[in-house]
Amino acid sequence: MGKKSHSSKNNAVEWSTPQCQPPLTLADKTYGNQGRGGGWRSMTGMLLVTLVMMSVLTMLSVLPTLTTTYLDNSSSEVPGEKNKSPVSRPTVVSPVVTTTYLDNSSSEVPGGGENKSPVSHPTVVSPVVTTTYLDKSSSEVPGEKNKSPVSRPTVPTETQPPAPKSTPKLKPAASSTQVDIHFVHIPKTGGTSLNAVLRQIACHLDPARNADCCLNPGFCDNAHRRCAAIKGCTNHLPNLKWIFEPPPSITMMREPVSRLISAFFYRGHSPNIDSFGVRPEFKQIKLGKAPRVEFPEYIEMVEYQNIQTRMLGAGSFPYRNVTITDEIFAKAQEAVEGFFFVGVQEAYELSVELLQRELKVGELDIPIENERDNNSKPKTKMDKDRIRSDTKLIARTLEVNDWDVRLYDMGVRRFCTALAKYPDLLDKLNTTKVKCPAEST
Predict the structure, then answer these.
(1) Is-contact 191 252, C-beta < 8 A?
(2) Residue 129: pLDDT above 70?
(3) Residue percentage of the chain with pLDDT more than 70
(4) Which residue has the higher pLDDT, 370 or 332?
(5) What distance in Å separates the CA atoms of residue 170 and residue 181, rounded to the nearest whole number?
(6) Burial class (CB in 10 A: 0-12, 13-18, 19+), 232
(7) What does the alpha-carbon distance between residue 154 and residue 375 come to, in Å, rounded to a whole number?
(8) Ranges of Polar residues compositional bias (predicted)?
(9) CB of 324 closer than 8 Å to CB of 283
(10) Is residue 290 within 8 Å of residue 281, measured between CB atoms?
(11) 107-113 contacts: CB < 8 A, separation 24 or more?
(12) d(CA 183, CA 179)
């Protein structure tokens, strides 16, 4: 074994045999004569101090950037489901960095499974300004307002996108005072003159919408003088379904014998001048290749019989070979009851006054003369008087037009019932032309 030698200078024990000396450790090499245990303690202490300092610095740097997230539980829950709409509310944002949140506020579709569409909004906030938008796209609970706006900080850029162009304003709707009218024009009942009155009423109520009525006053003879407010202005085709629904339906009726006499002597409504193509052979009469038809023959032609019942019961053009039945007559009676207004040609002027009262348009300064019926030539008037004086001919005319006679009586009752609401108008009634039943007045 090696021998130990003692030095009086430092009392250190030295080994005389070097190969038996313990090997040097990292602490011995690093800290020299401080010893092994002391070196480790010094290094550990320095590490602890370093960690403490780093922790303090980290806390100081993180504190200004913290944001908080609150769950907004104030919004109403959908019945049967939990509130699944956390709302992110950013606080003061650091000029250096912000945190990133996942927006899971989108509502789930009932029965559509889990919410599979979380929206990630990782953003870097500018050191100058941030902009907050309210997200109103989420669905509202039926019957309640959306109480959960989502705040999303966005990044302002150097060049903002241009603002969208404003939507052009729509034109204002038509006037609420507009009164559309469905007019069923029975031939030779004063309907052409009444059309002129209706055009003036439409012009008075809404001149902007009914400019065609204002610029082209008078009769509604053809499409060039059509008035948008008046349905059925230019033809004799009834639309029965319109009678029982808006707009109000109006018609004029006439005592059947007088109506037939007027039609026979007026162009277009008899075989002598057939404007409606009633029968092919009638063309020969117009060309002078066949003899003219006289009134006794005229009333026996089924196409010209009971046309008021045919129009209102069968919905047919007046001059068609449609056989009248009890069922058709019953429908015609329903139509007369369904009209908003029924006037009678025998009291034409009074009918126009009554119509203005019923439409509540006031007393308008409208000429109400029945123009066409007063334009007969002297010879035509003599021929009409001759027919009226023939009692047998009149009796036969009433017989073959029995359906129209009964329907006209019903129309008179409708007229008189409306007239009875205005005593001043009832006093004007000429009872020699129109006799109101006692029950209607």
Answers:
(1) yes
(2) no
(3) 55
(4) 332
(5) 27
(6) buried
(7) 84
(8) 8-19, 148-158
(9) no
(10) yes
(11) 107/78, 107/138, 107/139, 108/81, 108/84, 110/78, 110/81
(12) 12
Q: 12-36: per-residue pLDDT in tens?
A: 444 444 444 555 555 454 444 444 4
Residue carrying the six token digits 């005593």: 423
C-beta of residue 186 within 8 angstroms of C-beta of residue 307: yes
Vertex 182, ends 195 and 325: CA angle to 5°?
105
Amino acid sitting at position 197: V
Residues 270 and 295: their CA atoms lie apart, in Å, by 9
CA distance 251 to 311: 11
Q: Which residues 6+ apart lie within 8 Å of 76 measured at CB? A: 141, 144, 147
Q: What is the pLDDT of residues 399-409, one digit of tens each?
A: 999 999 999 99
pLDDT tens column, 104-117: 444 444 444 444 44
The torsion of the CA quartet 312, 317, 321, 324, rounded to 10 degrees, works out to 0
- CA dist 436 and 413 (Å) reads 7
Instruction: Extract the runs of DSSP E, i.e. beta strands, from 238-381.
Output: 249-253, 269-270, 273-274, 341-344
Q: How far apart are CA 389 and CA 383, in angstroms?
A: 10
